[in-house]
Amino acid sequence: MVDALEDDGQRYELIDGELFVTPSPVDLHQLVVGELHARLRDYLRAYRVGKPMLSPSDVRRGDRTRNRVQPDVFVVRVTESGRPPYPYDLGDLLLAVEVASPSSRRLDYHIKRELYLREGVEEYWVIDPDARNVLRWRERSDPGEILSERVEWQPAGAREPFVLTLEEFFDEAYS
């Protein structure tokens, strides 16, 4: 049914059969998304363990008629045989990132966090452009941590971590 909806600029996501509708993101949101994607792309080229993706791009779980999300930025696992087939499964993700907006806070901080971590996404971040920080979770029981200076992420197979120095990242994204 979601596929039958007309393209009206809204984002439609299904989680456990519940439809979530959020408005199109604002420019600052998109600037953060674009900057993060570019940095992840540059980092991952050296290791070829994952491929960074942007929304709109479907990620699904189990009953695909009940679960379809669109993380703002995510990294899909790459193996010797290449990328998994599209649409990606939540289990294919090494990292899922949402950029918080006033209209998506409950969805990003609670509902999606629970879904991603329950379904085996190795790491989940919520970037808060207003606070200029990142909240990170690595498993369901993880209470999360607020990172305000830097974020490090090192997927299996990468010799060096991806390092995001937040002050510089936000300054560059907003310039």
Question: SSE layout and pairings?
Answer:
Blueprint: E1 11-15, E2 18-22, H1 27-45, E3 50-54, E4 59-60, E5 68-69, E6 73-77, E7 88-89, E8 93-99, H2 105-118, E9 124-128, E10 133-137, E11 145-147, E12 150-153, E13 162-165, H3 166-174
Parallel strand pairs: 4-7, 8-9
Antiparallel strand pairs: 1-2, 3-6, 4-5, 6-8, 9-10, 10-11, 12-13
Helix pairs in contact: 1-3
Plain-language structure description:
With 175 residues, the protein is α+β, with helices and mostly antiparallel strands. It has 3 helices and 13 strands. Strands 3-6-8-9-10-11 form a 6-stranded mixed β-sheet, sandwiched between helices. Strand 12 and strand 13 (162-165) form a beta hairpin. Helix 1 packs across helix 3. The chain starts with 10 loop residues before the first strand and ends with a helix.
Question: What is the tally of beta strands?
Answer: 13
Please state the CA-atom Rg, rounded to the nearest Å.
15 Å
Number of helices: 3
Distance between the termini: 40 Å
Question: What is the ordering of alpha helices and beta strands?
Answer: EEHEEEEEEHEEEEEH
The portion of residues assigned to helices is 10-25%
Task: Kindly report the CATH topology.
Answer: tt1808, chain A
